[in-house]
Amino acid sequence: MEIALVLSVQSFILPPFLLFFSPHFSLISSVCVLCSPLFPFLSIFSFIFPHPPFSCSSVPTDLPISPSPLPPSLSLLLPFFHFYRPSISFTPSLLHSPVFLSLLNLSHSNSLTAFLPLLHHFIHSFLSITPSYPPLASLPILPFLLLLPPSSIPQEEMDTRPKVSSLLNRLANYTNLTQGAKEHEEAESIGEKRKTGKMGTFMGVYLPCLQNIFGVILFLRLTWVVGTAGVLQGLCIVFICCCCTMLTAISMSAIATNGVVPAGGSYFMISRSLGPEFGGAVGLCFYLGTTFAGAMYILGAIEILLMYIAPSTAIFVPSSPDGEGAAMLNNMRVYGSICLLLMSLLVFVGVKYVNKLASIFLACVIISILSIYIGALISAFSPPKFPVCMLGNRTINGHTLRDHQCAKTVLLRVTVEKATVLWEHFCEGKELNSSCDDYFSHSNFTQIEGIPGLASGIITENLWSSYLSKGDVLEKSSLNSTHTAHPASFQQPYVFADITTSFTLLVGIFFPSVTGIMAGSNRSGDLKDAQRSIPIGTILAILTTSLVYLSSVILFGACIDGVLLRDKFGDSVKGNLVVGTLAWPSPWVIVIGSFFSTCGAGLQSLTGAPRLLQAIAKDNIIPFLRVFGHGKANGEPTWAMLLTALIAELGILIASLDLVAPILSMFFLMCYLFVNLACALQTLLRTPNWRPRFSYYHWTLSFLGMTICLALMFISSWYYAIVAMVIAGMIYKYIEYHGAEKEWGDGIRGLSLSAARYALLRLEEGPPHTKNWRPQLLVLLKLDEDAHVKSPRLLTFASQLKAGKGLTIVGTVIPGNFLHSYGEALAAEQTMKHLMDKERVKGFCQCIVAQKPRDGISHMIQSSGLGGMKHNTVVMGWPHAWRQSEDPQSWKTFINTVRVTTAAHLALLVPKNISLFPSNNEPCTEGYIDVWWIVHDGGMLMLLPFLLRQHKVWRKCGMRIFTVAQMEDNSIQMKKDLATFLYHLRIEAEVEVVEMHDSDISAYTYERTLMMEQRSQMLRQMRLSKSDREKEAQLVKDRNSMLRLTSIGSDDDDDTDGGERTEREKSMTWTKEKTMQYRSTHSGCSTPEGFRDMLSIRPDHSNVRRMHTAVKLNEVIVNKSHDARLVLLNMPGPPRNPEGDENYMEFLEVLTEGLERVLLVRGGGSEVITIYS
C-alpha cells in the first residue's frame, strides 16, 4: 500500500524534477511529463494488486551492488510493471540476470546511449514471460519504446551474430594505431578527434625505409670492405646481403597483405604466423638487435666525432703508439655513455621531437650520398688532391708528416741537407750518418695519389682481395720493395691493420647496413592503404639501396687507391674520412652528414626498441617481462626505456663498431629467417585464411631466403650464431614451459594439425603389433555436486604411467540433458584441465552429458579417440563404501563398465584405496611392487610395474612376482621357467612360487557365503528404506570384521578352541529368533512368507567354492605382501547373470581385504609384451 502513495507522488513531482536536474535523462523525463496524467491511474492498480515494495535493499546480498533505493530512472518504470504484471515477484533469478544487473549499473552512470537499448531488452524479456498478456505495443510503455532506435530492438543472437551493416561499420572504422604516443594523448586532451593515417607509399614506407637502411656502415666501413675484399668479393658480399633482404621483403609483403597488420612490425607478423613461442623468442631477439643497433649507431657517431670532427676532445691520450687502441676504446666508452644518456633523455621527454628531427636526418643522408656520386663523377676530370706517402710499398701515417715532407732529407741550400721528421722515426739520431732501419735504408719515399679518379683504371688493382692480420702494415703490391725487409715495429710511423680480416668477418660487419626493411610495416597504422604501400615501398627501397651499395662498391674501387681503401680511419691522409675524400665539394659534407644521420638512426633505434619490448610485454606471453608493459600515464614505455638504455650501455662498453655489428647481424638474421619460415610454412600448409593480396611470392623464394639467412649467420660468426640460437631456444622453452595461453591461429599449430592428420591417416586402425603396444589411457573421473573431482589421485596414478608415452584421455559424465547442462559440462571440462595441468598430465578432456551415467560411460568408451589413436586401457576407481551407498546404481555402474570394457576388448585398471596412493611429491624410498600372477592376461601385470618404476615415485621400489602352483604343478620348475621368462623380457624381479593346497572349506567361508546370500535375499524381501539399509549394511560389515578376526587361520586352530569358536559363529548367525526380533522392531517392512523364504536359503555350492578360493588366496597374499607398497592382482570377470553382481563385489572385497594399495588389472585379451626385439 505504501508504494502506491510513493508512486502517486513520484508521478507528479519526479518527472519535472528530472527534467531540470537530471540532464542525462532529460529525454525520459520529458516523456514522463507528457504521460504523468496516466501515472496515478496506473498506481491505483497497486492498491488492487498489492505487492512488497521493491528497492535495491531487497536484492540478495550476493549481488554486486550496494543496498540503496532504486535510481529515479528505474523507479519511473515501476508503474508500468505494476500495470502489466501486478503479481510480479522480483525473484532472485530475475535480479541475478545479467541484463538487470547491467541495467541497474547503467542507471547510475551517465551513458544514455547504452542505457536505452538495455532498458528495451529488459522490458522485452520481462514482458515475454507470460505471452497471454496484451501485446507490447498496446501497453502504456509505448512512449518509452518510441524513444529507442530501431537498431536497438533486441533480436535473436544479436550479440553473437550482428547485422551486416554494423559489422561493416566496425571494419571501416577499425584503427590499428598503437595507443600511448604523447602527441596522440595531447590531441585527445584538447578534444581533437584522432585522424586515421593518410600517408602514401612514398612518405609512409619508401623514405622511412631509406632512412633506416642507409646508416653508419655506408660512410665508415664500406670503403674499407671494398679495399679489403676487393671489388669482386665486395660485390658478392653486398649482393648476398641484398638478396637476403629482398627475399625477406617478399615474404614480409605476403604476410603483411594477408589481413590487417597493426603496429608491431616483424614481431606481430612472426608471432601471429608462428605462434607465441616463436613470436616471443624472435621478438626478443629482434628487440636485442634493435637495441644493439642503437649502440652501434652511437659508437659510429662518437667515432666520427673523435676521429674526424674534434680529435682534440679526446680524454684519454696514448703515451705511446702501442696504446692508441686502448685509449680510443676508453674515449668511445666515455663519450658513448654520455651520448646514450642524452639520447635516452630526449626519447624519454617525447617521441614527437624525435619524429620532427627524422626528416632533417633523412635529408642529411640523401645529401651525403649525392655528394659521393657527384664527387666520383668529377674525379674523372679533376680528381681531388689527397697524396699518400709510401716507403717502398708500405703506407706512412700522414699524421707524422710536416709540410708534406714525404722524404728522408730536405735540401736547405745547394749543398746542405737536413733530416726530416721521418728520419727521426727510423734512425737513432738526427745525424745523416746515424744508424737506421734496414728497410728504411734500402727503400725510398714516394707519393701516390690517394684518389686517382674514375678514369685512372685503378679498378684493375682493386679487383682482388687483400686480407690482413692484426698488426700487418698496409702495402701496395704494385710498388717495388726490398727483399731484405724486416718486420715493422709499432714505434714506426706505418699504417697498421687493427683487426684480422676475412670474408666472413666482412659479411658480419656489412650486413647491418641492409637492415631496416621493417620500417614500413612498423608504420602500417599511419598508412592510407597498408596492403598496397608496404610491398611497393619496401621493395622499391631495397632496390634503391641495393643499387646504391652495388654502385658504390664499383665507384670506390674505380676512384680510390687500394691502400687508402684499406686505411680504415684515414690515417694516411691525415685523419680524413676516406669516403669524404671523394665527396664534393668538401669532405665536411660527408663528415657532418654522416654524423647527424648516425645520431638520427640511434634515436630511431632507442625509440623503437622500448615500444617493441612493451608490445611483447603486453601480449603477456613472457611473465617476467610483464612489468615492462607499463609506463607513464600517457603510455610511454618508461621501464622498457630504462632496460633498453642498460642493454645499449653493454654495447657501448664493447666500444668497437666492428665487434658490435656482428652481434646485431645475428639477431636481425634470425628475425628475417623466421619471417621467411612463416611465409613458407603458410604457403605449404595452404590454410583457408592464407590469401595474401601480394601475389608475387612462392615458397621456394621464402625457403631460399631462409637458407641464406641461416648461412649468413654461420658465415659471419658461427659462435655468435650459436649464442643467438641458444638465447632464442631458451626463451622458446620458457614460454612453452609456462604455458603460452595465446591462440593466434598461427602456422605452427596449423603445421601440427597437418602433421597430426597425416600421422592419423597413416596409423593403422586395429590392434597394433605387440612391440608397439603402449597403454593408451581413458581415465574415468567422477565429479561431486560442486564440479570437483572426487578422486584426483586417479590422475596422479595416470601421470605415473607416462613412461608408456601413450595417449591419455580424461573423461567424465554429467547426468542430465545436453541442452540444459552444456554450461556444467564446460565447467567440468575446465576443472579437469586445471587438475591435469596441476598433475602435469598431457592429454585431452572429454565430458559427456547423458541421462544415465552408465550410458554416458558406455558411449565414452565406444567413441573416445580418433582413428588409430584410440584408448586401449580404461582406468576407473573402486566404488568406495559400496555397501553403505544410498544409491545401488553406483556399484552397478561399476560392474556395467567392467562388462563394457570386456566386450570392447580393452584392458581395465582399478586402483583400490586410491586415496592411499602416493602423490608425485611422495616418492617411495624402499619397498616392493608385488605382482600376483594368477592367470596369464596378456602380460599387463608384467608391463605396468616396469612403467611405474620409470617414475620418480616408484623408482626405488623393487619388483616381486608371485605365481600360484597347484598340487599337480612342479613348483621348482615353474620358478626356473618364470625366471627365464623374465630374463628374456629384460625385467628385473624376484620370483616366488606359492603352493596352494585344496583344503576343506572352512566354516568361515561357509558362513561368509551364507551371510552374503542371506543379505541379498533379505534386502529384496524386506524392501528396506535407505536409513534402514545403511544400518543393516553396517551390521553386516561389523559381523564381517569380527568373523574375519576369528577365522583367519581357522584350519590350523586346535580342537580345544573349536567349541568356543563354534559358539561365537553361532552367535553371529542369523537365527529365527533374531530375525523375528528384527521384524518386531521393523513392523510392516515385510511379510512372514518372505522371511520364511529367507530362512530357507542354503549357500550355493559354486558361490561357496569361489568364496573359499578368494579367502585362501587373500590369506596368502596378506601373508606375503602385507608390507608391499603396491599389489597388482588379476581382476576376475563379472558374472554373466546380473543377479550375481552383488556376490561378485563381495568376492573382490574378500580377495583384496587387508591390503593397503591394490591395483586390479584385467587384460584386454591381446599380448602387450614380447621377448623379441
TrEMBL record:
Signal peptide: none annotated. It is a multi-pass membrane protein. Residues 1022-1068 are annotated as: Disordered. InterPro entries: AA-permease/SLC12A_dom, KCL_cotranspt, SLC12_C, SLC12A_fam. The keyword Phosphoprotein applies. GO terms for biological process: cell volume homeostasis; chemical synaptic transmission; chloride ion homeostasis; potassium ion homeostasis; potassium ion import across plasma membrane. Residues 1025-1041, 1058-1068 have a biased composition (Basic and acidic residues). The chain crosses the membrane at residues 25-49, 203-224, 230-257, 278-310, 334-353, 360-381, 499-519, 540-565, 585-603, 639-657, 663-684, 696-713. Residues 792-909, 925-1173 form the SLC12A transporter C-terminal domain. GO terms for cellular component: plasma membrane; synapse. GO terms for molecular function: potassium:chloride symporter activity. It catalyses: K(+)(in) + chloride(in) = K(+)(out) + chloride(out). NCBIfam families: 2a30 (TIGR00930). Belongs to the SLC12A transporter family. K/Cl co-transporter subfamily. This is Solute carrier family 12 member 6. It comes from Myripristis murdjan.
